[in-house]
Design brief:
heterodimer; A: alpha/beta; Ribosomal Protein S5, domain 2; 4-stranded mixed sheet; 23 helices; B: alpha/beta; Rossmann fold; Arc Repressor Mutant, subunit A; 9-stranded mixed sheet; 3-stranded antiparallel sheet; 12 strands; elongated
Chain lengths: 515, 337
């Protein structure tokens, strides 16, 4: 007997539908799985056979063929188990014909029949909805994640026996009792408030320059470099930056959830990623873990930081090759990875926040403590490749804090207050860039500088003077303009003024004046 | 690399060999000279100090070098980064002359970043070394080089030195050779002045103004000349009194203008700067201060916001009155721009 059921597979964060075709015919007893399955997918045969056996169903002693179509695309993962089981049930006539029609199955089987969670539920269910499939049966633990997708019924199944009962049920009322449709409301109610877990800026004492830098960076989506002695609070500030960025939009949230889902990092019971991600890879990270990769390319840190903050602490300690691999993603906001298993493109639009010491000992320019020589400092700075530093618009210094100042100072501004200013500045940018490919001031191309960062006569002269007296490069000249635009946006100023330019100039990149 | 013809080799038996150098213990047996050495009758001063100097050191070295250059005093130094190179360059800029004593072959520019200075010394002053052409710079060469630096000079001025500084070797050599040692005093809290202050404690001369230094050097030169002529003690005294009087009365206006005292960091900021800007400048120091520290030094903290201070600081940077040493750190500029 023949049957066909739907399931889905992933290519990067993008999903496509797979039909599982099952045929039982006479011949030597065997179970064949074809359609380019990988090792773990091939093992589905055993899992499905034993799981069926353990709910009291024996495979017939016949020649059984299961095909995963499109057969030429390589299939990875264990999410096909449930669909194969459902296909066998129909082919074995254990359930009424048509019971699996218009339904997508997704899930891994345990030997006892338990349905286990799988990565990538959200993008697959989205694809199913797009293709007009009416309902999805997904692992119970992934139920709420799937339910985020509108226009499709999603049911979460805990084990194979329940699925069998569901498929055997005759009326839809009965069906709903066994496996209720998870309302998308339930999914939405799952959204947590954006700043629930992120620590607050008011806890940072002093460091006004760095806090201001973080605010400007968040407002214009500029990459930020913090330079300061050990223990000055660089990571403390970095950790709080997500809290001053506007909350994720629904669209952004779905994008991000797809990435996290594909990488299999969704926490149990978590439906959707609602907070901006903060990724702080250790400096020993490999290029593969950073950018993404492995046989079948998986998202790396830079994609997991999509729409959020990628924090590179001890920037000088990262392997040069790892940092250099950031060049394409920084430019294109996405990364293309080619491997044997196929070429995938993962979105990676993140705000890069870097931290480093000013010199090998960490105390420059305090000459009483720092004895580093000029060549030593040069060498130290030289460890970070120029093209990466070139992408950083803002550079701020932190100073060493002493105990006394911790006690004295009153609390700083709260993240909420800063976030409101940031959101206003973002709004202005949105209006300005309507109908252009840009979203933030940081994106502005040199060619459009005149259009979006127009300067008055007086300001233009000021900029020229700055250019000569500070010995700026053309690149940093443009960076100053972009940052000044963001500062003006924060102050709701239509035009870039002198003060904005001067402040922006003080954040120019370190290597320009560093010894 | 410069061609070999422009470098001459002289021994103590040749006429061009500096008189002063002949008299020091362990005088070099031969010198490789690029450029032209000044006459032995010219006063020569060694200006030495830390490589990693502060803006204060930079400022003093610059003013001192320029003053000496204007007054036809040869500046002798090691052409190193920091104080050495700054004072030599300033002397050349002021139209004076200078000798760079190298710790490597005279055809090698070390450190490479002082290429401009090296080239200019060949044209306007001299580079000098006891090492043969092509000798690479080695750590062991530099202490030996220092004895030539002090040996070529009438006096040694230490601008900035830490407690354990290579500069102090030059001072030891100078004392051994009977040269005068002057020291630029610093604050006891600045580790870059520790070596200098220690020397003062040990009885070194204190340099308070370049003008004073020049007077003393001229007197010194005069005294030595007299001693060489073998005059009696009383005669000498009488003559010196006359001489000093004469100098004080007979200085022509042009000479006065030439010897104008550089104001050591006390100049009032130009009148065209606003009150705010002057106030911010007053809150700056030759040692880097962070924005927060500068704020703390502002006379009226409530009257001006941190952002306003920042933009005033950037204006000062544009005027060359201040330098940004790191983002958020500023100090007074030690260099006239």
């Amino acid at each position: 007997m023949y049957s066909m059921v739907f399931t889905g597979a992933l290519q990067g964060v993008y999903a496509y539908l797979v039909s599982v075709e099952t045929d039982i015919s006479s011949g030597l007893p065997t179970l064949n799985l074809v359609g380019s399955p990988s090792q773990e997918t091939r093992e589905a045969k055993e899992r499905v056979r034993v799981a069926l056996h353990n709910i009291g169903l024996r495979l017939p002693p016949a020649h059984i063929t299961v095909n995963l179509s499109p057969a030429n695309r390589r299939k990875d993962g264990t999410a096909f188990d449930l669909a194969i089981a459902a296909g066998l049930l129909e082919a074995m006539d254990k359930i009424p014909r048509g019971a699996v029609e218009n339904t997508l199955f997704l899930g891994e089987l345990g030997l006892d029949g338990e349905v286990k969670g799988v990565p990538g539920v959200l993008p697959i269910v989205r694809e199913a909805a797009l293709q007009g499939i009416g309902q999805c049966i997904v692992p119970y633990v992934n139920g709420r994640e799937g339910a985020l997708v509108p226009d499709i019924n999603v049911r979460g199944v805990p084990d194979l026996k329940t699925l069998l009962d569901f498929l055997l049920a005759e009326t839809s009322k009965e069906k709903d009792e066994i496996l209720p449709v998870i309302s998308s409301e339930a999914g939405k109610a799952f959204l947590c408030p954006p700043d629930a877990k992120i620590p607050d800026f008011s806890e940072v004492v002093g460091q006004e320059t760095a806090k201001r830098g973080a605010e400007i960076a968040a407002a214009g989506f500029h990459h930020l470099l913090m330079v300061g002695p050990p223990g000055a609070g660089k990571s403390m500030i970095a950790r709080r930056i997500c809290g001053i960025m506007p909350p994720l939009t629904m669209e952004e949230s779905l994008e991000l959830t797809s990435i996290v889902s594909v990488s299999g990092l969704m926490k149990e019971g978590e439906a959707m990623i609602t907070g901006r991600p903060f990724q702080a890879p250790h400096h020993t990270i490999t290029q593969t873990a950073f950018i993404g990769g492995s046989m079948v390319p998986r998202p790396g840190m830079i994609s997991l930081a999509h729409r959020g903050v990628l924090f590179l602490d001890e920037l000088t300690e990262f392997q040069r090759a790892v940092l250099d691999s950031l060049r394409q993603p920084l430019e294109e906001h996405q990364v293309q990875i080619a491997r044997v298993g196929g070429t995938v493109t993962y979105p990676s639009d993140f705000m890069m926040v870097c931290a480093m010491n000013p010199c090998p000992c960490g105390y420059y320019p305090d000459r009483d403590r720092c004895r580093c020589t000029q060549p030593q400092i040069r060498r130290y700075m030289g460890k970070v490749s120029g093209p990466i530093l070139d992408r950083i618009d803002l550079c701020v210094a932190l100073e060493a804090v002493d105990i006394a100042s911790l006690k004295e100072k009153e609390k700083g501004e709260s993240s909420r207050a800063v976030r409101e200013r940031v959101m206003r500045a973002r709004k202005r940018q949105e209006e300005r860039f309507l109908g252009t490919p840009y979203r933030f001031n940081a994106d502005i191309d040199v060619a459009d500088m005149e259009r979006f960062c127009h300067l008055g006569k007086k300001e233009h002269r000021c900029m020229e003077e700055l250019y000569h007296s500070l010995g700026l490069s053309l690149r940093s000249y443009h960076r100053i303009l972009k940052v000044a635009r963001t500062i003006a946006d924060l102050e709701a100023a239509e035009k870039i003024e002198m003060e904005h330019l001067l402040e922006a100039a003080s954040y120019r990149p370190a290597q320009e004046y560093w010894m | 690399m410069m061609s070999e013809e422009t470098i001459s080799f002289i021994t103590p038996f040749d006429s061009g060999y500096p008189e002063r150098l002949k008299n020091i213990p362990d005088a070099p047996a031969g010198l490789y000279i690029g450029g032209r050495l000044p006459e032995d009758t010219e006063i020569a001063v060694a200006v030495v100090g830390a490589r990693e100097c502060s803006e204060y050191g930079r400022y003093v070295a610059q003013k001192l070098g320029a003053f000496l250059g204007e007054n036809k005093v040869t500046v002798v130094s090691g052409m190193a980064r920091g104080i050495d190179g700054i004072s030599q360059w300033a002397a050349l800029e002021a139209g004076g002359t200078s000798i760079g004593v190298l710790g490597c072959g005279p055809d090698i520019c070390y450190p490479a970043q002082n290429r401009k200075l090296y080239d200019r010394l060949l044209r306007q002053g001299a580079v000098l070394s006891e090492y043969a052409l092509g000798t690479p710079p080695k750590p062991a060469h530099f202490p030996a080089r220092n004895r030539i630096v002090s040996g070529l000079s009438d006096a040694v001025v230490v601008v900035e030195a830490r407690e354990k500084s290579g500069t102090l070797i030059t001072v030891d050599m100078a004392l051994e050779q009977g040269r005068e040692v002057f020291v630029v005093p610093g604050r006891i809290t600045d580790s870059l002045s520790d070596g200098c202050n220690r020397l003062i404690r040990q009885g070194a001369g204190i340099l308070l103004s370049p003008r004073e230094l020049l007077t003393e050097l001229q007197e010194l030169k005069h005294r030595t000349k007299e001693r060489d002529r073998g005059e009696t003690e009383t005669e000498k005294k009488k003559k010196r009194a006359c001489k000093v009087e004469k100098r004080q009365t007979d200085v022509s206006p042009e000479e006065k203008a030439l010897q104008k005292e550089p104001d050591m960091g006390k100049e009032i900021i130009s009148e065209r700067f606003s009150r705010e800007m002057s106030a911010v400048y007053q809150a700056l120091d030759f040692y880097p201060r962070s924005l927060a520290q500068i704020m703390a030094f502002m006379p009226d903290r409530s009257a001006i916001s941190q952002r306003q201070v920042l933009s005033q600081l950037m204006r000062l940077c544009m005027e060359g009155k201040a330098v940004q040493v790191s983002s958020g750190y500023f100090c007074r500029s030690g260099q006239d721009r």
